[in-house]
């Protein structure tokens, strides 16, 4: 039996919600958003949240600043708040990001919202001591925001298990591909249960990212807030030759 709320209680994406309350988010979460001055959903949030609340796999395409952190963060927090608390060393949701800086940004955005609904998170990133990350996992956190390399290290140390992961998010998936992280990402996803919700957000959804989608996602719904990135098919190169007497001045 699922420990999550019944998806049928959430609104349809076609209801055109005008506020976060209309999206079916819990009142404490809406109040915290309002306290932070966040009152109107961005396009990607209004489109994505209902499907994510319903447990669908989601593909989101949008540039930085499109509001995608809350697009996956709000339904993730909502679903986790209505389930069981995390066991020691067994987070229930994983957010994979390419850089430490992005991990901190995501954590800073979601941490106060999580406290409002009793959901706790930690980060697992390189460049900082292991001790605090290991201690947070030992005490039990629902959400792990991680870079692939540090998370792999924590798993190898026996400090973290992905056996209880019910929701996985890949943020900036195209950047992870560009940085050569996809082998580690694939290895980590293979350690999560095959059943569960997966959300992937990226500026582009082609090439290596598409391979991830085909392997790990089930009947995903796609939401986009930006036109496809144009591919340059022709380019002229011009060479300017400067006389030696001119270049030496």
UniProtKB/TrEMBL annotation:
Note the InterPro entries from the entry. Answer: DEAD/DEAH_box_helicase_dom, DEAD/DEAH_RhlB, DEAD_box_RNA_helicase, Helicase_ATP-bd, P-loop_NTPase, RNA_helicase_DEAD_Q_motif
Q: Determine if Membrane is one of this entry's keywords.
A: no
The organism that produces this protein has a lineage beginning with:
Bacteria, Bacillati, Actinomycetota, Actinomycetes, Micromonosporales
Domain DEAD-box RNA helicase Q, residue spans? 18-46
| A GO term from the CC aspect | cytosol
**For the Helicase ATP-binding domain, which residue ranges apply?**
49-223
What are the UniProt keywords, alphabetically? ATP-binding, Helicase, Hydrolase, Nucleotide-binding
Q: Does the keyword Transcription apply?
A: no
Write down the PANTHER family for this protein, in alphabetical order.
ATP-DEPENDENT RNA HELICASE RHLE, ATP-DEPENDENT RNA HELICASE RHLE-RELATED
Q: What Gene Ontology molecular-function terms does this entry list?
A: ATP binding; hydrolase activity; nucleic acid binding; RNA helicase activity
Q: What is this protein called?
A: Helicase ATP-binding domain-containing protein
* Sequence motif Q motif, residues: 18-46
């Amino acid at each position: 039996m699922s420990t999550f709320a019944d998806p049928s209680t959430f609104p349809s994406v076609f209801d055109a919600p005008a506020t976060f309350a209309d999206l079916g988010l819990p009142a404490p979460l809406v109040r915290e958003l309002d306290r932070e001055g966040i009152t109107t959903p961005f396009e990607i949030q209004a489109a994505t949240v209902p499907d994510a609340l319903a447990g669908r796999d989601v593909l989101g395409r949008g540039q930085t600043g499109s509001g995608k952190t809350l697009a996956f963060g709000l339904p993730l927090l909502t679903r986790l708040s209505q389930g069981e608390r995390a066991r020691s060393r067994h987070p229930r949701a994983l957010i994979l990001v390419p850089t430490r800086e992005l991990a901190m940004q995501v954590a800073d955005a979601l941490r106060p919202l999580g406290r409002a609904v009793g959901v706790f998170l930690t980060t697992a990133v390189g460049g900082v001591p292991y001790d605090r990350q290991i201690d947070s996992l030992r005490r039990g956190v629902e959400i792990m925001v991680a870079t692939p390399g540090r998370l792999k290290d924590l798993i190898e140390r026996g400090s973290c298990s992905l056996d209880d992961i019910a929701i996985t998010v890949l943020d900036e998936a195209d950047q992870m591909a560009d940085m050569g992280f996809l082998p580690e990402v694939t290895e980590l996803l293979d350690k999560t249960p095959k059943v569960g919700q997966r959300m992937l957000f990226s500026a582009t959804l082609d090439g290596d990212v598409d391979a991830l989608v085909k392997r790990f996602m089930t009947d995903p719904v796609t939401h986009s807030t930006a036109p496809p990135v144009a591919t340059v098919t022709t380019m002229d190169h011009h060479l300017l030759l400067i006389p030696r007497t001119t270049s030496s001045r």
